[in-house]
Amino acid sequence: MLSSRGVLATGQETRKHRVGTRKSSANPGLNISRRDFLNGAALGAGGVLLGAAAPAAAQQAFRARRPSLAPDWYGYGGVGDYRLSHGNTPEVVAAAHRLRDGEFPASLDGLGDVEDYDLVIVGGGLAGLGAALEYVKTRQSGQTCLLLDNHPIFGGEAKENEFNVDGTRLLAPQGANGFFVPPAVSDPERASGDARYYAELDLPREFKLQDWPADNEPLRFCADNYGYLVRGLQDNTSVGHYFRGGETAPGTWAVDMWRQRLANAPLSAASRKGLWQWYQAGATRRFDSDAAAIAYLDTMSYAAFLENELQMRPEAAAAGDLFMASACGLGSDAVSAYAAYQLPMPGLSDMPPASLKRYSFPGGNSGYARYFLKRLIPDAIAGQVEFEDIITGRINFAALDRAGQPLRMRLSSTVLRVAHDGEPGAADTVSIVYTRDGEIRGVRAKAVVMATGGWMNRYVVRDLPAAYREAYEQFQHVPFLVANVALTNWQFLYKLGITAAIWDRGEDDFGYTCNIRNPMQVGDYRPPLDPGQPIVLSFYTPFFYPGLPVKAQCVRGRTELLSTTYAQYEEKILAQMQKLFGSAGFEPRRDVAGIILNRWGHAYSVPFPGFYGGASGRAPRDVIRQHYGRIAFGHSELDGLQHWGPAADEGRRAFTQVRDALQG
Ligand SMILES: Cc1cc2nc3c(=O)[nH]c(=O)nc-3n(C[C@H](O)[C@H](O)[C@H](O)COP(=O)(O)OP(=O)(O)OC[C@H]3O[C@@H](n4cnc5c(N)ncnc54)[C@H](O)[C@@H]3O)c2cc1C
Questions:
Q1: 37 secondary structure, DSSP code
Q2: What is the Cα–Cα distance from 370 to 649, expressed in whole angstroms?
Q3: What is the Å distance from ligand 1's center to 126 Cα?
Q4: Half-sphere exposure of 642 (CA within 13 A, CB side)
Q5: Of 412, 372, 432, 414, whose CA–CA distance to 631 is shortest?
Q6: CA–CA distance from 358 to each of 178, 215, 609 (Å)?
Q7: Which of 73, 176, 468, 603 is found 20 to 30 A from 453 (Cα to Cα)?
């Protein structure tokens, strides 16, 4: 039975009564607690079924619709400001699917109050926040802006989870999580990407991590959820590779496998040789310009580059899969060699120095989103403009959408339709239809920035020219799942001498990797680093199926992500942990305090061969980066490898393209 402590601890006694106990059918021995109570708000919003002709009836029909996902799909959300928004919510998924299926409103006609703004930004991720920052900085007196986002909290894929395990507050990323401190710049206005925003928002350059006592076993910790996968940096983490056993033989661990030059890996001599050749390979090609690199490398996948250009064994491409899929969605067979060159991967770049430091804010890149918000609407986060307050303070939701302020941010608002009021070249305004609280609402603006992904824009923007539609159709989006498991203790990892695990995945297995971070210490937020104390174990889980066409891989992954219930994932995760850590004493009922699933249906746009323009130099994204009429597009996927600073750059670029339309 589940311990009677009610370990999940929302911090409230009532929580104990809301968490049921259930025997897992697949793993009766686990006797897992159900931490997947339905978040009440999650089922209220309904979908999209409208007709302009009969608005009242349409509104009624609209309210009657319910999300199509299983009621136990979403699951437990933790505590704090992000508890109702972990990954895509059920109503976001339902609305997106109804849009795709053509159930949409025709116009603003018949809708009640239609608000007027100078600018509407659709999307509250880093791109939308980048657009908003540029607007706020350059805005003329009297100009107004409304930012609409479909999730209950801003940040897009840069959000966080919060647990309270027996009184210990633990934050963890929902998606985007790690960073290198960029070089300092004296004039942010002349810089771009990470360096520009890091300086402009005045982020700190040094951080305090938790001390690891010298009298403990000498473990090494990653500070984020990626570093242990990066060639050259993974030696800074105690990484265990788990190799499956046979029918009767148990699996085996190879700890610090790369550090040991694969000597402890249960592989054939030929495989070891092939892998080591790949791992060590430096830059084998030099290019005079980025255009030259694209013209050559963007014509082939990374796997093809390794096998055909460098004559490496297939193990090399397979070894590259995991990091590539974690960083951009699919493996070596599907991703452009140019993206691999940028990442950087063996054979295309030299080994990065182990001294490079990666960090992760307590909630991952939600830290960046929160810095943007503090600048945009200062009282939206309680406290001063200081690191501790911004990173750990509570959100003042009432401050986001107040009448009269230059920027209003409206959450839980799914935009269904955007179109010019007339010919795009001649129209004075753009109409925006969105849904909030089960109601259909309308806004009119002089200009719109679409800071959402292409999977959405091609359905939402109704007068999208054919060239844009064709360009967007070439984008391929893959899903991703981040499962954060709050542990009451991590003695089982300590016993194995590891802080990160990578496994040789079998057919029925869950995931590929997991790790605990050395938690950043921020003011009074001081999570422990002690095997006997709570911590979050994060499973970053891509969906990739080498050998299938890119689109088929994306569809298969999304089907699995959407059709698996919370309970099924819970079972899979705990069974996987049992398999990996059972021999080291892992005991789910004692060691697991709670699980939050963060499911991202369109997490990454895959930079497939040709994404950057290939030999022709014509890239689909070049079309999307043009504005038409009063609508411009800015989102991170246009960059190929999605990243926070370039995401904000894309939003800023899109805003500047339509800024003049705000006048008059
Ligand atoms: C698992 C994972 C790990 C990552 N790790 C890192 C990392 O370590 N470092 C890094 O820099 N980047 C990382 N990224 C990349 C990350 O996606 C980008 O850095 C950036 O945060 C994306 O910003 P965006 O604004 O372009 O998109 P998003 O963050 O997706 O924001 C778009 C917003 O628009 C909303 N929206 C969409 N359609 C509508 C609609 N119709 N109406 C209203 N709102 C809508 C979306 O729901 C979302 O909130 C990671 C991504 C994933 C998925």
A1: P
A2: 17
A3: 7
A4: 29
A5: 432
A6: 6, 25, 29
A7: 73
Q: How is the chain split into domains, by residue range?
A: 267-357
Question: 644-658 and 126-138 are packed helices; what angle lies between their axes, rounded to 10 degrees?
Answer: 50
- Listed in order, strand segments (DSSP E) in 51-144 are 114-122
Looking at the whole model, is its pTM more than 0.85? yes
Structure-token pair, residue 657: 């393209």
**Angle at 556 (CA atoms; ends 650, 25), nearest 5 degrees:** 120
The confidence score (pLDDT) of residue 101 equals 81
156 CA distance to ligand 1 middle (Å)? 4
Both tokens assigned to 304: 């093809």
Phi, psi values for residue 455, rounded to 5°: -60, -25
Residue type for position 263: A
Angle between helix 314-328 and 269-280 (nearest 10): 50
Q: Is the peptide bond before 344 cis (omega within 30 degrees of 0)?
A: yes
124 lines ligand 1 (CB under 6 A): yes
Q: Ligand 1 pocket check: which of 361, 452, 558 to mutate, most ligand atoms within 8 Å of Cβ?
A: 452
Half-sphere exposure in the Cβ direction for 175 (13 Å, CA): 30
Q: What's the confidence (pLDDT) of residue 113?
A: 85
Burial class of residue 130 (count of CB atoms within 10 Å of its CB; 0-12, 13-18, 19+) = buried
Tokens of 96: 């997106």
Quickly state the pLDDT bin for 104 (edges 50, 70, 90): low
**Mean local confidence (pLDDT), 47-67:** 43
Q: Which of 642, 652, 653 to mutate to test the pocket of ligand 1 (most atoms within 8 A of CB)?
A: 642
Backbone angles phi, psi at 327, to 5 degrees: -90, -30
Distance 310 CA to ligand 1 centre (A): 35
What are the φ/ψ torsions at residue 381 (nearest 5 degrees)?
-125, 125
Q: Which runs of consecutive H residues, i.e. helices, occur in 173-307?
A: 193-200, 269-280, 290-297, 302-304
Check: CB of residue 484 under 8 Å from CB of residue 595.
Answer: yes
Dump pLDDT digits (tens) for 581-590.
999 999 999 9
* Axis-axis angle for helices 644-658, 193-200 (nearest 10): 80
Q: Is 89 in the pocket of ligand 1 (CB under 6 A)?
A: no
* End-to-end Cα distance, the chain: 68
Q: How far is the CA of 452 from the centre of ligand 1 (A)?
A: 8
Quote the pLDDT of residue 339: 97
Ligand 1 mean position to 125 CA, how many Å? 5
Q: Are 81 and 395 in contact (CB under 8 A)?
A: yes
* Least confident residue range of 9-18, 171-180, 270-279, 632-641: 9-18
Any idea what DSSP says for residue 332?
Answer: T
